[in-house]
Amino acid sequence: MPSILIVDDDAVLNRSLSKLFNKNGYRVTAVNSQMEAIASLERDIFDLVLTDLRLGAGSGLEVLSSSKKLHPETEVIIMTAFGSVQTAVQAIQNGASDYITKPFKNQELLFKATKSLEQIGLRNEVRHLRQEVADRFGFDNIISTSKVMAELKRIVDRVAGTDISVLITGESGTGKELFAKVIHQHSPRCNKPFVTINCSAIPENLLESELFGHVKGAFTSAIANKRGLFEEAEHGTVFLDEVGDLPYSIQAKMLRVLQEKEIRPVGGNITRPIDVRVIAATNADLVKSVRQGRFREDLFYRLNVMPLHIPPLRERPEDIPPLTEHFLGRIQREYKRCPATLSADAMELLLKHDWPGNVRELENTLKRAVALTRNNQILHEDIVFISPRESQMTPEPEPISGNHSLQENQKLQILKSLHENNWNYSLTANRLGIGRTTLWRKIKKYNLRQPADFVASRSQG
Ligand SMILES: Nc1ncnc2c1ncn2[C@@H]1O[C@H](COP(=O)(O)OP(=O)(O)OP(=O)(O)O)[C@@H](O)[C@H]1O
Ligand SMILES: [Mg+2]
Predict the structure, then answer these.
(1) Which of these ranges, 39-48, 208-217, 399-408, has the smallest mean pLDDT?
(2) Tell me, what's the pLDDT at 127?
(3) Which ligand is located closest to the Cα atom of residue 283?
(4) Mutate which of 142, 166, 178 to test ligand 1's pocket (most atoms within 8 Å of Cβ)?
């Protein structure tokens, strides 16, 4: 129930306004003077203040300024008599959200009140979302115990506050995007946009206009001016993901943008200044690309002011246990599963694996394990590795009925059945009601493999 403070020295109007807002679901406090209004503001917090401009000896402007001082979040609407619009304009400049000229229709006033309240809702939502993002991209969200990662975090802490270009390198799934977001979140730009540009995902012929925008008529389908991603990131951060795939034809233009800090929309002949911080990432060997003439050396140096290399997970196995704990907690919370622990030999399996898909592969493997486990403990046979190339789709613990792609469901169903039948193909095929050859083909297709240690322990036993 929104609350409103009505301030008007006209007793009749005051009463009728109270009735109106009451009827429309507001909690109403009504007073007749500036002094009473300020006393109310000191006692209570309102969503909305509706005040007349002229209040006998007092002034609505004073009510406005007290309200803004005491509760900046409270919206204020000013009522004015015809002819005092000039003062109303001043009120808006002093922070009133709107004004209404007497006499007015009830509907008009209610409409303005609703709009002001929406403003509060939006502001709260934005604040809430910002907080959520801030919570997700704090330093604590980079889980690690290894020395190398601690050192990386230390560097990030130092460079985040500057405008230095950072080039993040590392294999797929090592956390490059996570680092980029943490840097943005700890920079003065954190309340401005973070715009990801995936340089390999946008077709070359569209890339320039996607990046820098275009003017109407620049090409056949350019029916209106369009802002590019750089402009959308104004005052924020541009994350150039897979920068190694940036077509050679665009590299020179990119360099110019970064050096001159201005963009020229496609088809336009006027440049516009632009203020963005650039973070780039790649899992390719850019030095090699430079040597091979596929990547401009000058652009490489411009991007690589602060290099940040995230080592693969296999080179920092001490990060595996804390990451495992982190992901298990998250998966269980997300899917409302009972907390499962990990058996010692399951952990050993995780520690020995070489993780070509790095942290992302670990997360997916754990999601599968939670889906497969029949106990409160994840055993080594619940750990099934699928090479990252084959498991592009993320498996989820509610596979059979969820809104997953058919293939993904089938893959998990087969995996589950294999698992339950100790990887006996005949039994599994039987249970699934398909032929052995079909099963075998599916196993090849999905690249399903029995956990190696499971085989070993069974053949020994
Ligand atoms: N140290 C870490 N702590 C917690 N989560 C991590 C860590 N490293 C990576 N992750 C998580 O692993 C997943 C993959 O990370 P991210 O997308 O940042 O990798 P990437 O290097 O950008 O991969 P790619 O090259 O495939 O785009 C994300 O869900 C990310 O949050
Ligand atoms: Mg990435």
Answers:
(1) 399-408
(2) 83
(3) 1
(4) 178
Closest residue CA from atom 23 of ligand 1? 173
Lowest-pLDDT choice from 123-132, 306-315, 443-452: 443-452
Weakest-pLDDT range from 5-19, 273-287, 401-415: 401-415
The rounded distance, in Å, linking the Cα atoms of 219 and 288 is: 36
Residue 143 Cβ < 6 Å to ligand 1: yes
Residue 169 has pLDDT above 50, yes or no: yes
- Tell me how far apart the alpha carbons of residues 370 and 146 are, in angstroms, rounded to a whole number: 26
CATH fold for domain 315-460: Helicase, Ruva Protein; domain 3 (1.10.8)
Q: Which CATH number fits domain 137-311: 2.30.30.40, 1.10.10.10, 3.40.50.300, 1.10.3720.10?
A: 3.40.50.300
Ligand 1 close to Cβ of residue 144 (< 6 A): yes
* The two structure tokens encoding residue 69: 């001082």
CA distances from 306 to 43, 256, 278, 286 (A): 53, 19, 11, 14
List the single range of 15-24, 49-58, 411-420, 446-455 with lowest mean pLDDT. Answer: 446-455
Q: How far is the CA of 136 from the centre of ligand 1 (A)?
A: 13
Ligand 1 atom 12: residue of nearest CA: 360
Name the band, by pLDDT with cuts 50, 70 and 90, for residue 451: low
Q: Which pLDDT band, with edges at 50, 70 and 90, does 371 fall under? A: confident
The boundaries of every CATH 3.40.50.2300 domain in the chain are: 3-131
Q: Which ligand is nearest to the CA of 244?
A: 1
Strands 166-169 and 277-282: parallel
The Cα–Cα gap between 345 and 323 comes to: 17
- CATH 3.40.50.300 domain position(s) in the chain: 137-311
DSSP-assigned beta bridge partners for residue 6: 30, 50
Question: Which segments of the chain belong to CATH 1.10.8.60?
Answer: 315-460
For residues 114 and 100, the answer to whether their CB atoms sit within 8 Å is: no
Each residue's pLDDT tens digit, 71-84: 998 999 999 887 77
Output the residue whose Cα is nearest ligand 1's atom 9: 175
CATH topology (fold) of 3-131: Rossmann fold (3.40.50)
State whether residue 273 is helix, strand or coil: strand
> pTM for the complete prediction?
0.69
